Amino acid sequence: MPDNGTYQRLINLLDSTATGYKLIDHEPEGTTETVSALRGHPVSEAAKCLVLIVKIDRRVTRYVLAVVPGDRRVDLNAIRTLFAARYVGFCDAATAERLAHAVPGTVLPFTFDPELELIADPDVTAQPCLYFNAARLDRSLAISGADYAGLAQPRIERIASPMSD
Known about the structure:
By secondary structure, the chain is of the alpha+beta class. The protein is built from six helices and ten strands.
């Protein structure tokens, strides 16, 4: 079921800032490779969004929304180094859904929760056209990487590595 609240919040943000975007309706799909084919673009132009848990020490835990190109993976060691953390891993589904206000496969490359820090790889913001599911499995959005960076204000860091590693 789509999270219409998160979807509407995104559309309101784009409309209120007069940001150009394109909506793309497609069969319900949350896998980056498959939905990229449905949308008709290279996987490298998709924004893959993953919620991570970052344990700085025994008492301090932070959450990160990592955004990397669809044909790459999140480099957990790079995240660990950025935070001087003792542990970095993928968040459990319930926590990720609570923080991202979206179900897995529909997580936006935006954060609407102060607990969730947004970090994007520079190859994401450099895309002339960036695609992602719009908090729904059946609708995606296309926006320029520059407009995305301007609106979302992510921390820009090299956090992607090749899939083959």
